[in-house]
């Protein structure tokens, strides 16, 4: 008898919880319907556009992910580089070397940014295994990050000179530098480099013209640990 009574009590409790949940859902739906009824045509059109934009964004992100965006990946060969670049509008490719410590620093930041900026493809390629590309792109300092838009190399980050000239630069600093090249969707202020507000990073930075970046002579120390 006691067991039967406990089961009945439990059933009543569950039924009551289900009724309460249903009531909350019903009230929420009623509120949403009332809100829609009170909207004028302009508000309804605005809501429709917002939902269409959200669907479009979701579909776009799905396409990006199918092309290998959203993660920082190593590609095995120069041939793979051309195929990867062909598939995506915006590509960031880090030319690295196993024995260069600064390449590991760059890896850490690019791993974070690849997940944040799925609109851009983030890759890495061993410079010692891609001599043709390094010669063609005039890559002499390691690490070098090539910034590629529509299949054409638009800009380079050579060493850490543009990142506050320190091994301790932040992910936000690298993100800002990529934003300057319009290779990611950057929401910050391009006129204010993140490292300017940090005294230990020293002097202010002036945005370099792309031709200056490509033609500038860099200290060979950037190539060593």
UniProtKB/TrEMBL annotation:
Q: Which residues form a coiled coil?
A: 22-61
The biological process GO terms on file are: microtubule cytoskeleton organization
Query: Is Nucleus set as a keyword in this record?
Result: yes
Q: Which UniProt keywords apply?
A: Coiled coil, Cytoplasm, Cytoskeleton, Nucleus, Phosphoprotein
Concerning Gene3D superfamilies, the annotation shows: Glutaredoxin
Record Pfam families? Thioredoxin (PF00085)
Superkingdom of this entry's organism?
A: Eukaryota
Q: Which GO terms describe its cellular component?
A: centrosome; cytoplasm; cytosol; midbody; nucleus
Every Thioredoxin domain range = 78-161
Name its cellular compartments: Cytoplasm, Cytoskeleton, Microtubule organizing center, Centrosome; Midbody; Nucleus
Check the record and name the InterPro entries matching this protein.
Thioredoxin-like_sf, Thioredoxin_domain
Function as written in the Swiss-Prot or TrEMBL entry: Significantly diminishes the chaperonin TCP1 complex ATPase activity, thus negatively impacts protein folding, including that of actin or tubulin.
Subunit architecture:
Forms ternary complexes with the chaperonin TCP1 complex, spanning the cylindrical chaperonin cavity and contacting at least 2 subunits.
Q: What is this protein called?
A: Thioredoxin domain-containing protein 9
| Gene name tied to this protein | TXNDC9
